[in-house]
Amino acid sequence: MKTSLTIAGSDSSGGAGIQADIKTMLANNVYGMSAITALTAQNTMGVTGIMEVTPEFLQQQLDSVFTDIYPDAVKIGMVSSPQLIETIAENLSKYEAKNIVVDPVMIATSGADLIQEEAVSALKEGLLPIATVLTPNIPEAAVLAGMPVNNDDDMIEAAKILSNAYGCAVLLKGGHSKTHANDLLYSNDQYRWFKGERIDNPNTHGTGCTLSSAIASHLANGHDLETSIKFAKDYVTGALRDMLDLGSGDGPLNHGWNYNA
Ligand SMILES: Nc1ncnc2c1ncn2[C@@H]1O[C@H](COP(=O)(O)OP(=O)(O)OP(=O)(O)O)[C@@H](O)[C@H]1O
Ligand SMILES: Cc1ncc(CO)c(N)n1
């Protein structure tokens, strides 16, 4: 069985972060492992607390995983401080990690800040250059590319800027678009749209975590990037279409929609 590692924060409500990643990996046929960067106290209505691990403890987790069950792919999600970002960058180089999916988590769907401001430059210096694919949503792409992203042409321009600056593929997710749910891949000076049916479901907590973990799972299983994105998008679409409705705020997806008999 192929293996995949998520380096991300825990979401106590189970819909995003580590919990979404592990569920997604199971449902997409890989063995999932985790290195936790922070605990969050959160639910469908918001984040009430964040407790970061120390860089030393993150280091111990990464050593434990990489020296025993080597991951075939790595997904990186919420990492809120420059020190933790440096620890991850150093270790992924040291252990020659491959198939690295970087989801530059900045703000929760509920609106909470999940990254310290000074960590954004550490992210740009340490993690984006080693990414196989970067998966920003529209607001994150605007921050990273330094330009407003208001329409499809802006999405193409921002993805191009990021792909050229960091030498990685960029999947700019369209979930925040008012009109569609199309994601744009910019890679090797070419772009391709992954068109998605926009589902009328207010419960979108963790869609980004779920998509990036599903991409990592399919890369781990040996698929190329475009095939992995297509499979991952189909998985997220199915999980949204299932219309799970939990909690009083922005609820989670059904990660097991394709799994339970
Ligand atoms: N209403 C929707 N219908 C269909 N697909 C959607 C919808 N909302 C989001 N998606 C898809 O979900 C994936 C994640 O995109 P999105 O832009 O929501 O990420 P995100 O903001 O990082 O997610 P989150 O912060 O909630 O984890 C993309 O493939 C996007 O197209
Ligand atoms: C821990 C965590 N990671 C990522 C997100 C973004 O959805 C979230 N809400 N919580």
From TrEMBL:
Pathway named in the protein's UniProt entry: Cofactor biosynthesis; thiamine diphosphate biosynthesis; 4-amino-2-methyl-5-diphosphomethylpyrimidine from 5-amino-1-(5-phospho-D-ribosyl)imidazole: step 2/3; Cofactor biosynthesis; thiamine diphosphate biosynthesis; 4-amino-2-methyl-5-diphosphomethylpyrimidine from 5-amino-1-(5-phospho-D-ribosyl)imidazole: step 3/3
Assigned EC number: 2.7.1.49, 2.7.4.7
GO-annotated molecular function: ATP binding; hydroxymethylpyrimidine kinase activity; phosphomethylpyrimidine kinase activity
Any one GO CC term of the record: cytosol
Enzyme class: transferase
Catalytic activity: 4-amino-5-hydroxymethyl-2-methylpyrimidine + ATP = 4-amino-2-methyl-5-(phosphooxymethyl)pyrimidine + ADP + H(+); 4-amino-2-methyl-5-(phosphooxymethyl)pyrimidine + ATP = 4-amino-2-methyl-5-(diphosphooxymethyl)pyrimidine + ADP
NCBIfam families linked: HMP-P_kinase
Protein name as catalogued: Hydroxymethylpyrimidine/phosphomethylpyrimidine kinase
